[in-house]
Amino acid sequence: MSDTPTVPTGFPEGFLWGGAVAANQCEGAWDEGGKGACLADINEFTADIPVDQKYNGEETTEHVRELLASTDRIFPKRRGIDFYHTYKQDLALLAELGLKTFRTSINWARIFPNGDDAEPNEEGLAFYDRLIDEIRANGMEPMITCLHYEMPVALTLKYSGWYSRELIDLFERYCKVILDRYHDRVKLWIPINQINLVSVESYNALGICADRVDNLQEAKYQALHNQMVACARVCRYAHETYPDLQMGMMLCGGPAYPGSPRPEDVLACMRHNQTDYFFGDVMLRGSYPGYMLRFFQDNGIDVRFGEKDVDDLRSGTADFMSFSYYYTSVCDAETYANGNSDRSNELLPASPWGWSIDPLGLRFTLNEFYDRWGKPIYVTENGIGAYDKLEDDGSVHDPYRVDYFRAHIEQMREAVRDGVDLRGYYAWGPIDIVSCSSSEMSKRYGFIYVDIDDYGEGSGARVRKDSFGWYRHVIETNGAEL
């Protein structure tokens, strides 16, 4: 018998076909069950903003207090799609879709309403007991994100968000509570969602009010360091206490391409990508890479290490890497010099929200990440936001969604044939949820339509889109028939 390695013909047996949501975008019930306010609860919906300007940027202490006190503004994430009450029906639909796995987050503010409470909120813990049990009862493997823009707002007002080292201990304590509670039923964990996505989710990701720090750029890198130390401590605790758990880390994927073959553009693009990749280098390899230390020096950034931080990072590396994939971009020497920024790729088509559509880039990214870290990979988000129409006969025709997923899954299959150890794929928002970046329902990702509009009006009915049957067949054939 020959031991010669062979090229895979397709997705491996047991591949996890799934879908992903975030608690803050679907649950609603923002003030029920003892829950406190989280950062996403103050994401306001405002109509008539150009689509390319819809994102969650910086905040000030005064504005945060103003939003918390507001009674006449629109905060769609406070209501979500009412998943807190409808999760049984919704999970039954996702089981009908054929999902093998379901990723969601636990809302930190539902467990510790103020973040530093003396005891966890039992009513919140009991809700996730029921939710996780229902996921499993429907034949789906749960993947849990511990923090997906759901830090209690109180921690940004009492402290300075993740800039304050106190949050390392508070997050570690929170994660220990949920790991202890659910470890027997949840084997796949991601401590922090898209840890590198600070450019468009600055306050949501770090909870730093810009008026409370002297140097915002430096404060952000200090906060990110604190997050990585906290993640390392959580991973180490899980490995020591529950060795059967798989602990991951997650990036927002989609690297930049050089703007031209000019060496200056290639170098600038590499440096731009490194500022995203360094999170993986730290969390999968266990130490800061030299290029990032130089970046700090060149930009006058002082990141303070605690006495045990180096040991914590070394001893708490993740078991797998995961990433979201929506678009790629372009970086050249000029855009890099302008604040390490990138730009859209004019050679690619774009979604209605201006996000470039680049299926081949998914294959490139998978190979790039596997070559770099050699760890198992999960694509934990991928999809296209689109304007869907509910027809008079109750149907939703979305051929553009089928085209998008088909092209991306084809390239994912090619990456598997390239030798990438890809374990699972999570379509983002398999049921329509509130958009993260723009807090609107109009930007729909799902295979299941939810009859709620940007203002919370509608029947709330769930409707299978045409793409529902297509994705179900993809799962049934393990990606062989697209």
Can you offer a commentary on this structure?
Helix 3 (83-97) runs parallel beside helix 5 (122-137) and helix 9 (216-241) packs across helix 12. The strands form three sheets. Strands 1-2-3-4-5-7-9-10 form an eight-stranded parallel β-barrel, surrounded by five helices. The chain has a two-stranded parallel sheet with strand order 6-8. A two-stranded antiparallel ribbon has the order 11-12. It is globular and about 60 Å long. It is of the alpha/beta class and 482 residues long. The chain has helices at residues 23-26, 61-69, 83-97, 108-111, 122-137, 154-158, 166-182, 202-206, 216-241, 263-285, 290-298, 309-315, 333-337, 359-373, 399-417, 466-476, and strands at residues 16-20, 101-105, 141-147, 188-192, 246-252, 256-258, 320-325, 329-331, 377-382, 422-428, 448-450, 462-464. It has 16 helices and twelve strands.
Mind sketching the topology for me?
Elements: E1 16-20, H1 23-26, H2 61-69, H3 83-97, E2 101-105, H4 108-111, H5 122-137, E3 141-147, H6 154-158, H7 166-182, E4 188-192, H8 202-206, H9 216-241, E5 246-252, E6 256-258, H10 263-285, H11 290-298, H12 309-315, E7 320-325, E8 329-331, H13 333-337, H14 359-373, E9 377-382, H15 399-417, E10 422-428, E11 448-450, E12 462-464, H16 466-476
Note the main attributes of this structure.
two-stranded parallel sheet; alpha/beta; 8-stranded parallel barrel; 482 residues; single chain; 12% strand
- What is the string of SSEs from the N terminus onward? EHHHEHHEHHEHHEEHHHEEHHEHEEEH
Find the count of extended strands (DSSP E, 2+ residues). Answer: 12
N-end to C-end Cα span = 34 Å
Shape: globular
**Uncertain ranges:** none
Secondary-structure-based class equals alpha/beta
* Rg over CA atoms: 21 Å
Output mean pLDDT.
Answer: 96
Give the strand line-up of the largest sheet.
1-2-3-4-5-7-9-10
Q: Kindly state the percentage of residues in helix.
A: 25-40%
Q: Describe the largest sheet.
A: 8 strands, parallel, barrel
What is the beta-strand fraction?
5-15%
